[in-house]
Amino acid sequence: MCTEIELRKSELDGALIKTIYFGGGTPSVCSVQEINQIIETIYSNYKVSKTPEITLEANPDDLSEQKINDLASTKINRLSIGVQSFFEEDLQLMNRAHNADEALHCLEFAKKQFSNISIDLIYGIPGMNAERWQKNLSIALALELPHISSYALTVEKNTALEKFIQKGVIAPPSDASAEAHYQILTSTLEKEGYVNYEFSNFGKPTYFSQNNTAYWQGEKYIGIGPSAHSFNGEQRSWNVANNALYLKGIQLGKRNFEVETLSNADRFNEYIMTGLRTIWGVSLLKVLENFGNQYLDYLHSQSKSHLQNGFLKIENEQLHLTKKGKFLGDGIASDLFFIN
Fold first, then answer.
1. Mind listing the pLDDT tens digit for each residue in 240-260?
2. Got the DSSP string for 79-118?
3. Sign (positive/negative) of CA torsion 200, 206, 211, 215?
4. Any idea what the Cα angle at residue 258 is, between residues 253 and 264, rounded to 5°?
5. What SS3 state is found at 129?
6. Do 97 and 88 contact (CB within 8 A), yes or no?
7. SS3 for 177-191, per residue?
8. 3-class secondary structure, 7
9. 12 φ, ψ to 5°?
10. Which pLDDT value is given to residue 154?
């Protein structure tokens, strides 16, 4: 990975690195020495901001007190911890390796070393009623964390959960239940001063994820490692997912990767999809500047019915989802996509 970092140092044209993100997967299994080596390689080959956001994803079972202390000795300044739920029955249903006590202990200790912590919580879990979901949020709020990401449960293929649902042991997730939980989520967190700056993300002011915000706003980025994705403003590329082929290419001084050049329609559709999910919305002026009158006229035409139905609104030349339209955002975005 360090060799790949060195090989690709010219790709960003000397741009300032503002965020470094260790994830997904479970990068906390890396030793502190390995993490330091990667960070030092980035600093040696790129121009890095004086105050970069450096995040590490981890699960509670990976974060012993010693591990947290070790991480605090590195340049990492933000932890994203996959708690998912503070209830044992939810964690068991999702086949998580940690238990509720481990999650709480890990967070209480992590707060002593890190001021910038985010947790993930899952809603829409079969069997989770509104009362238990509200209790989950109350426990999270009592910890006074500056950032919470929350997602509806999705059933992945070939998992134990999928098999249990197919056999009728567990009820499938309910869209109605997920929507009700989302309404509880937004109203509860907004009352506590969190800003719902992206559909699934809630942060106290100044604690928005800089890394994820860069994705949503179309910034360039480099992804390092097997299957990692990159974006240069016009093309997306992704490294081969096979570890052996990845290593073989790097040893030969090259990447094994595929690339896709985005058309104007692709870039427009991505902007619509990401913009509508955020508090910044879709800028009509940006659409005109970047894509021209044809796309702006098309956007006005396609959004007309959703504006009339109260699912979309235009404020200060920005197209936004309304509260009424928020949970329908993916479907509304697809209605606005430019189809060649």
1. 999 999 999 999 999 999 999
2. EEEEEE-SSHHHHHHTT-SS-HHHHHHHHHHHHHH-S-EE
3. positive
4. 130
5. coil
6. no
7. HHHHHHHHHHHHHHH
8. helix
9. -95, 10
10. 84
In this prediction the pTM is 0.93
Euclidean distance between the first and the last CA atom of the chain, given in angstroms as a whole number: 39
Q: Are 198 and 212 in contact (CB under 8 A)?
A: yes
Residues 6+ apart with CB under 8 A from 9: 45, 46
Q: Where are the beta strands (DSSP E) in 95-252?
A: 117-123, 147-152, 195-198, 201-203, 229-231, 235-239
Q: How many beta carbons lie within 10 A of that of residue 45, not counting itself?
A: 16
DSSP, residue by residue, 35-75: HHHHHHHHHHHSEEEEEEEEEEEE-GGG--HHHHHHHHTSS
Query: What Å distances lie between residue 132 and 25, 154, 214, CA to CA?
Result: 28, 19, 34
Q: How many CB atoms lie within 10 A of CB 107?
A: 21
C-alpha triplet 280, 203, 87: angle, nearest 5°: 130
- Tokens of residue 317, six digits: 């030349």
**Which residue from 142, 146, 67, 140 is spatially nearest to 110, judged by alpha carbons?**
67
> CA-based angle 96:114:121, to the nearest 5?
30
Taking a C-beta distance cutoff of 8 angstroms, is the pair 109, 66 a contact?
no
Quote the CA–CA distance of 189 and 123 in Å, as a whole number. 14
Omega within 30 of 0 (cis) for the link into 329: no
- Nearest Cα neighbor of 225 from 19, 10, 27 is 27
Q: What is the DSSP string of 287-322?
A: HHHHH-HHHHHHHHHHHHHHHHTTSEEEETTEEEE-
Residue 93 one-letter amino acid? L
For tokens 């690339």, the residue is: 259
Tokens of 199: 């559909």
Task: For 138-166, write each residue's pLDDT tens digit.
Answer: 999 999 999 999 999 988 887 777 787 88
Q: How far is residue 33's CA from residue 70's CA, in Å, rounded to a whole number? A: 10
> Whole-angstrom Cα distance, residue 219 to residue 18?
11
